[in-house]
């Protein structure tokens, strides 16, 4: 996708308003995500005009977790806004694995569905691995299938889909013109859904990548060598200003609630990076919220469009 | 597998004979590989006694490259020595992809075959990816299938097979008692068959891993931070003594011919690591030849045994 000078311009204006002595440019994920959604809407309109097809995304939700319901509702709304048709299955908490698998099979063979998403976490009595592996590799818009991860890791191979959150991190780096090739990158955290695929993506883009995790000794030393840091570990304010190389690009995936009696809700959300400190040292930084967060759904829409284009050979 | 004090003891004796001022303990891959082959032979004898089954390894060779023929002959000999039954198909250089695929399909459904290996490189008119992907994931003893690589990369998943050469590197570290958890590791090279899976294995063993490659600036700086170095880049003597942290464990996968008028063949084999320099600084080091080399076939035998045990549920 193209780089976006508007985003960068808006960001540099914003940065002055957030903290008077901050020197880092703010990476405005909300703005970038909005631009991407607009680009997707244009592409979908063209596709509809050209071949009479719109992308379809199926979401399977099991149980009635409030947070999952909110996510699914947001996904549905975002789909509608860009012209993706959404399909939804809501199953009770005590459904059997077989019932979920049956719905996956139906969506796998439905030609109007181009992406299938099983909302996590699943109830404890279900085997995540069995269920996620049942999603057709061509419709695995989450990119969590081990075959996709393997292709992501390998040179000369490409995954069908790149997992949404790490894809969003890369997109932010690209749109803000951050050079990756030959740069030192540190990924903090090695989860299957963010840290590990983010490291593979940076590696594929020819960065020299190190992964920092709970067993890493002196994580600050290695992080301080990095031109690019992606923090995805889920520990509030873990990465302090002293961990940051001056001028580095910081992508903060963490969204951690911390007590805040001054907030009406009694808490506020902070990242894995101590923003107050890091923003004085970094060259670019994502805020929390408003950084990586809005990118995840935008990338899900992008993966769904990509899938429909591939299946219908539409360029 | 168990650690081997005999190997370590033998190695420390050897180290004195190789270079008078070398301080590194030599990792004797030849000796370790021999011990592993003996352990495998014992296990196979037990299996044969217990359930009347021996592991079977099928090798498909296309064309008449001298080096490939030598490899295949060595594999066959090694199989026979431990009690693995070997199956071989030799196809002419101008065979079609379909012929190769037909043989793979036959071996996939043959219950006496537990491992299938397609000797690389294949002739240029064939698509490696198509052919390698046709090997049943349960019999992919090379561990090159992207599904295996994906499972290797993911937490909470395990591959059916670990690629032989990187598995051999890890086995050498284990058998020489090198602690991996919490250590800094640098892998030089990121090939699909050695560097990348070696990095994933070190990462799974809780090292803090960095991958150095052709785009890495100042590779010596990051390498010098490593307690463990795996060099697999194919450049003779790339890693100099000054790149090595004192006391580090060095696993040299490279086997590079360099001109040597004093050798009867006119050349000799050297690794990616300048042995003369590195052995004075490292704590442990593999020689070339006689380090990682002999481990690859031993690990292939190990993978074939493992596969037969899994398929026949033999513990």
Automatic annotation (TrEMBL), chains A, B:
Stretches assigned to the Tetrahydrofolate dehydrogenase/cyclohydrolase NAD(P)-binding domain: 163-310
Listed SUPFAM superfamilies: Aminoacid dehydrogenase-like, N-terminal domain, NAD(P)-binding Rossmann-fold domains
Membership in a protein family: Belongs to the tetrahydrofolate dehydrogenase/cyclohydrolase family.
InterPro entries: Aminoacid_DH-like_N_sf, NAD(P)-bd_dom_sf, THF_DH/CycHdrlase, THF_DH/CycHdrlase_cat_dom, THF_DH/CycHdrlase_CS, THF_DH/CycHdrlase_NAD-bd_dom
Biological process (GO), any one: photorespiration
GO molecular function terms listed in the Swiss-Prot or TrEMBL record: methenyltetrahydrofolate cyclohydrolase activity; methylenetetrahydrofolate dehydrogenase (NADP+) activity
Catalysed conversion reaction: (6R)-5,10-methenyltetrahydrofolate + H2O = (6R)-10-formyltetrahydrofolate + H(+); (6R)-5,10-methylene-5,6,7,8-tetrahydrofolate + NADP(+) = (6R)-5,10-methenyltetrahydrofolate + NADPH
Domain Tetrahydrofolate dehydrogenase/cyclohydrolase catalytic: 27-142
GO CC annotation terms, alphabetical: cytosol
Any Pfam family hit: THF_DHG_CYH_C
Chain's role: Catalyzes the oxidation of 5,10-methylenetetrahydrofolate to 5,10-methenyltetrahydrofolate and then the hydrolysis of 5,10-methenyltetrahydrofolate to 10-formyltetrahydrofolate.
Species name: Oryza punctata (Red rice)
Keywords of the record: Hydrolase, Multifunctional enzyme, NADP, One-carbon metabolism, Oxidoreductase, Photorespiration
Protein name per Swiss-Prot or TrEMBL: Uncharacterized protein
HAMAP family according to UniProt: THF_DHG_CYH
Pathway named in the protein's UniProt entry: One-carbon metabolism; tetrahydrofolate interconversion
Assembly notes: Homodimer.
Family matches, as Gene3D superfamilies: Leucine Dehydrogenase, chain A, domain 1, NAD(P)-binding Rossmann-like Domain
């Amino acid at each position: 996708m193209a780089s976006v000078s508007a985003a960068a311009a808006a960001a540099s204006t914003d940065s002055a308003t957030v903290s008077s002595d901050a020197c880092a440019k703010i990476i405005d994920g909300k703005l970038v995500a909005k631009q991407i959604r607009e680009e997707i809407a244009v592409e979908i309109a063209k596709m509809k005009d050209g071949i009479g097809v719109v992308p379809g995304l199926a979401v399977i939700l099991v149980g009635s977790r409030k947070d999952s319901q909110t996510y699914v509702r947001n996904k549905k709304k975002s789909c509608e806004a860009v012209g993706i048709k959404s399909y939804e299955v809501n199953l009770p908490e005590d459904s059997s694995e077989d019932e979920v698998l049956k719905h996956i099979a139906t969506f796998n063979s439905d030609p109007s569905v181009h992406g299938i998403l099983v909302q996590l976490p699943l109830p404890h009595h279900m085997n995540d691995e069995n269920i996620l592996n049942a999603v057709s590799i061509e419709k695995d818009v989450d990119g969590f299938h081990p075959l996709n991860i393997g292709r992501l890791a390998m040179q000369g191979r490409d995954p069908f889909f790149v997992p949404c959150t790490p894809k969003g991190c890369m997109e932010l780096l690209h749109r803000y013109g951050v050079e990756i090739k030959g740069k030192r990158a540190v990924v903090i955290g090695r989860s299957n859904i963010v840290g590990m695929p983010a490291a593979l993506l940076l590696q594929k883009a020819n960065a020299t990548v190190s992964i920092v995790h709970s067993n890493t000794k002196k994580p600050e030393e290695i992080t301080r060598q990095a031109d690019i840091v992606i923090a995805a570990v889920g520990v509030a304010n873990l990465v302090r200003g002293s961990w940051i190389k001056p001028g580095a690009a910081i992508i903060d995936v963490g969204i951690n609630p911390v007590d805040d009696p001054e907030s009406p809700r009694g808490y506020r959300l902070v990242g894995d990076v101590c923003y107050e400190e890091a923003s004085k040292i970094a060259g670019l930084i994502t805020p929390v919220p408003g950084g990586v967060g809005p990118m995840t759904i935008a990338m899900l829409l992008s993966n769904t469009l990509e899938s429909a284009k591939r299946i219908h050979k539409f360029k």
